[in-house]
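Record type: ASSEMBLY
Status: queued
Input:
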Amino acid sequence: MVSRPHGGRLVSRVVSGRRREVLLEEAGELPWLELSLDRAVDLEDLAHGVYSPLEGFMVREDYLNVLGEMRLSSDHPWTIPIVLDADPGELRGVGEGDDLALRYGGRVLGVMRVEEIYEWDKRLHAEKVYGTRDPRHPGVARVMGMKELLVGGRVDLLNPLPNHLEDYTLWPEETRVLFRELGWRRIVGFQTRNVPHMGHEYVQKAALTFMDGLFINPLVGWKKPGDFRDEVILAAYKALIEHYYPRDSVVLAALRMNMRYAGPREAVHHAIVRKNFGCTHFIVGRDHAGVGDYYGPYDAWRLFEEFPDLGIQPLFIREAFYCRKCGGMVNEKICPHGEEHRVRISGTRLREMIRRGEKPPSYMMRPEVAETILGFKNPFVGDHE
Amino acid sequence: MGSGRRGRYTTVSIPVTLYERIRELIRDTGFTSVSQYVTYVLREVVAAHEEARYEEPFTEEDRERILERLRRLGYL
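Status: finished
Output:
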């Protein structure tokens, strides 16, 4: 059975029809706040129910509960604060109970009913969410660059963000209908930001063996120089699915959502989000959502134990590698051979090979996937994009 | 403003015999108190009951609109 949305109700704050026209007209007269791309993406995800049961940016009570207890004030598990920051000058004349237009690139995206404007402690936020105050941590660096106040309140989305991957984007209400239509009852979600190699395929197929369907849901949007482009990731997955997965066993759809690199807390967040898409299970691999060596490789697995009421079952699958003696992809739990027989698939090494125009060996990457990637003139994000 | 505060709590009564039984059960486990154990177990049970009571709120019109897009995009 498709999973119940988190908190019991799939949120929809997307306004259409006559009400949208009225709100858009009113928004022109309202005080406004220009959003960063990150916050605009959060707004769209909130409105489409990706963050159900949240209906808007967090008010102080939810925010502090999430920091301290990893739960909303409704007691539902929640590990990552979804907050809107602003400078005092931007909120001059705006008070609690007022409506605020939310703009991106000068265009109205939505409106917010301001419930609360409050101060926050960025260092405490970093410590609680990321487990560190180290400014070299990319998530911490982003938090430290945010503005001085937080604004909480329910939002309405009036215009979508421009999306060049619209035909690859599905929202929770759509996947929930799709999974039912396909007759899937046990659905496993897979989070990725990369092109698939043999290790990913092994992990996905290990999970799919016990499931009706696999939902591959790459995060798209902001990338750093040297990352694979979103189009390349999607094309590579299409090639893999076409050649190596049973028909009607996989759904591939992109999700534009901010990556925080918050390790264990973000792993739980990723699971909650996929629960809202209808998944009943979620693959949690090694160092999920980690960066550098801030988190232990299996810290995320332990954090899941604190949430008996998560409503989505994590599947803890160990890192896969190629064993020359076993003659295939295995993991340390099922392979008795020593390290000298094992070949770890390194994303960095794969990127280097592709950058040189080389096709990785077939034990690392399917030839059809490699050819698809090499077919792009420049598969990587450049320095000035 | 508050810091990483503790949550709010209230009191629920359970028989002393059950309390003792739980206290014995959680000895040398990761649970540090009977309250912590009871909270954990209740959350699990409550979530399971909530799960069983859910129905999708889509109208037939919503469903048709979604199906049309899914067909157009090749998902169905």
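Annotation: Chain A touches chain B through 37 residues (CB under 8 Å).
Annotation: The CA atoms of residues 232 and 380 of chain A lie 8 Å apart.
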